[in-house]
């Protein structure tokens, strides 16, 4: 039976967490802060948990330099829950800004940028939620595609001239890092593949799914976003909690919007305003995932050099792995899935092993024997995916590179 230090875990999520944090969390699970009770046995309204959640919020604000006019929320329902919540809350905000009589209300456009599986799922959910409430009446909104790389099998990002944004959309939606396909927007704004913030029409809100790149490096143009969200289970903590960063003017009363008509109703646990008014404690929150996330944040600030340190290590890890795979590709032994190097994710490195069909299995079996775990690509696309989130060390990546070099000679 392997021990933790004999294993290099490249899982795409849930993913590895720092060992020191897990040891502290294990202790807190049994006896939190000498209370004689575990963290999961304490009231979410007691002073102990209040300190945990407030600490997590303050550390996150500090780590990501989140401006004061944004509220941080801890929610449930995962990234998938936010595919829905974003539509419901922003359509309510849009309706409240346009309080014309129902007969005069024009369903707004929702612009989706499709760069892989997760943005496509978010788009499908927007289509579903905005269907007309009954036959022969207008839809709640008109989701449309502002750019799509589907025809190129998600192997690159759109060029700046390939976007077509609508002037009066309620929002534009993009996924910063596509976990399954291994595609991430580059952070240099002058890069041809960078997200074209400058082309989004004035007044159109911008929403970003940061689930798999959250706290791996700074968020580019945080102040240009309306909502940024991320499931915790990649870089932050265990699954079960989703972090939202919402601009304060978008914390709207969705019931008031529903009274005007022409908007879908928002379940109360998904209303951002209710969550904000109750400091993320409207109902029982996932206390353990929030507790572990709070410990991870402290660890990243104290031991990992904050966001600068994380960015620098993550860059090194990604560069090393891509360089190794490029060399293997030149020998005809491997192939990187994302063909445009500008679009290659720092977090999820996707590739295939070339040659006979058994070669991939041989690669994975050999990797497994050496302790390289959970490298199999997502079931929808196959191939191999090495996810190198914050808790995966540079040493683990170096060892994986040695194995790739050995296998691909
Ligand atoms: C980028 C991205 N968005 C959304 C999701 C969906 O998250 P969840 O499974 O928490 O609903 C995932 C899951 O891995 C993801 O990677």
Automatic annotation (TrEMBL):
Catalyzed reaction equations: O-phospho-L-serine + 2-oxoglutarate = 3-phosphooxypyruvate + L-glutamate; 4-(phosphooxy)-L-threonine + 2-oxoglutarate = (R)-3-hydroxy-2-oxo-4-phosphooxybutanoate + L-glutamate
InterPro entries per record: Aminotrans_V_dom, Pser_aminoTfrase, PyrdxlP-dep_Trfase, PyrdxlP-dep_Trfase_major, PyrdxlP-dep_Trfase_small
One cellular component (GO) term of this entry: cytoplasm
Superkingdom of this protein's organism: Eukaryota
Pfam family, one: Aminotran_5
Cofactor(s) it depends on: pyridoxal 5'-phosphate
Domain called Aminotransferase class V: residue spans: 8-93, 152-400
Family: Belongs to the class-V pyridoxal-phosphate-dependent aminotransferase family. SerC subfamily.
UniProt name for this protein: phosphoserine transaminase
Source species of the chain: Kwoniella dejecticola CBS 10117
